[in-house]
Design goal:
With about 375 residues, this protein is of the alpha+beta class. The protein has 7 helices and 21 strands. Helix 4 packs across helix 7. The N and C termini lie far apart (about 50 Å).
Amino acid sequence: MAAEHGTYASFALAPATRAGAVLAGGAQVTHRDFTDFVVDGQPLLFRLADLDAVSPLASDVPPAIFAEQVRALLLEAPAPLPGGRYLIYGCPECADLACGAVTAVIERAGEDDYVWRDFAWQTGDRPDLRLNGYHGLGPFRFGGAEYRRALTGLLDRADGTRAEGRRVMLIGARAAVLNKLAAALRSIGIGADITDDPSEVPPEELRAYAVVAFGRAVAEDRREEVRAAFRAAGAEVAYVSGLAPVIPLLVAQTEEALDRRPEGGRRIAGLRATGREAVVEVSSDCRVGLTVYRLDRLHRTHEHIAFDGVLPSGSHRLPLDGKAVKGDAFLVARTSGEVRVAAVPRGGGGAPPGGGGGRGRPA
């Protein structure tokens, strides 16, 4: 094999999520579900430590355009960019090349193989490989049969039968909080409905929901009635118990529950708090933002940025300001496309390792 064609690498696809958010001041980050490229067992996006982007294989792309993107990657359509370059990751908000994108040359090698090479950050017609190339990334040579099998398996999604998978049912006693949460979720691309009695909802509609979020005032017997209605409908959903009536926190809890990737497929592998520090576990180098939300005695919300920086792979203990976590306090850890939530225990106690304090579990 010629050296310029790279060594063989495995190729697969996996579902991925770019978590949305409602930020301070009302700024919004759109929720996006997409299919990521997995090279040698690792999501390719993980090799780009601080990139907030999605692949062109997004779930909300119209079916015809989705199929066109797949066929382009199969080299069944002309390259969309000069020099035989294809978009690998683009802006999750607008997909405009002017915002910047990761591109690569995709070409055939030998009789049956595909090669991805010359990865670069591109904002115009042609990238400057010397200044903006991802040196050390690739080239990757994929066996043709494996490569085609993975991509052609997506083409049945072009028939318009894709499941929405992003609807959330909200159940609670505080109408004002529910209405604000529903509006916040809808603003970032997540369908949200408020109801009191899901038993009156047709089973086929219940199966369209991915998450059920309960307010803190919903009693356990009422929660069990809701779970029974979803079980009777054959619906697999995740249940979230709202930690506090703080809209950005509730949005983060919902986003975490919507992320159905296995634990090993996430950058933030775990988040917990001891009261004096946050323990953040990351599976690959990435930029992490850690925010503390606190309710004071008058139930006013306070927001504090505890950390914002790049963390290498491993477990990290980050100190927490005692005043920032006094009373009812909660952590939200974010990296590009992911979010974790954890409650800060009162009195400096520990929390279970692994996931956060608000993640729902599939029924």
